[in-house]
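Wed. Picked up where I left off yesterday with Branched-chain amino acid ABC transporter permease. The coffee machine is broken again, so keeping this brief.
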Amino acid sequence: MATIVLLTATGLGLGALYFLVAAGLSLIFGLMDVLNFAHGALLSIGAYATWWAASGNLPGAGPGGAGFALAVVFGTAVGTAAAVLLELAVIRPLYSRPREQILATVGVSLAVPALLSAIWGADARPFPGPKALAGTFGLLGARIPVNRLVLIAAALVVLGALKLFFGRTRHGLVVRAGVEDRAMVTALGIDVRKAFTLVFAIGGAAAALAGAVGGLYFGSVDPTQGTSLLIFAFVVVVTGGMGSVSGAAVAAVAVGLVQQFANYYTAAGLGDLSVVVLLAALLLVRPRGLTGRLA
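Structure written out below (tokens, as returned):
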């Protein structure tokens, strides 16, 4: 029983991390039809910015308490700024040229890890998290790492904020309308380009937050961390349905749990294969994923 509880908690924590990465990717891919291979680079930027700040390089920030919270805010802000810069400088001129979009974002996804390696080295760096989050707590005979709760809480906050933004705010409605009929929204005097930049900013913030709290899960940061997580984020997006935040949340939980249980009860490494099999089986039954709408 203790093993099942531990695997479930770990799977939920991993699923929460996948959701944070996939939420922004789902919005950008599903709503704007932009296949952003540089999304993982935004996660790496957020992770390294948080690591840099929490290591004592930012006044007021540090590895404990409010100092760590400030480091997370700083890392998320840096990732958001990088996402806006990416959209303005790289994506916006290529909205009508999808093949060039792919080439450009792949180039960015390769350039950012190389730049991080050049500055801080290719080796993983220990992540300076609060001591309170490095411990465990008891649940049904299992010892659960506290940082798993942080990941789950962050994912729930992001899920609630996205649903509220797209369902209850004017900017969210503008984005939805712009996706459905860009020409009509533009004719009404609304600058759809600003709305799409906002979507990129939100996606970048979610990815950077994933990098910031993902350091707690892995205990370290390295330049290729975002690239490896991006693969599973794409699986989550396709499984959940293009543009569906709720679908991405359900898919992320399923992927995290399947991966953890398969890795434990089968040979090591088969968890990744199990995720691919899950995706293939779902697409045979529901080609559009769990849901194909923004909800």
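Quick read: The chain is about 75% helix and 5% strand.
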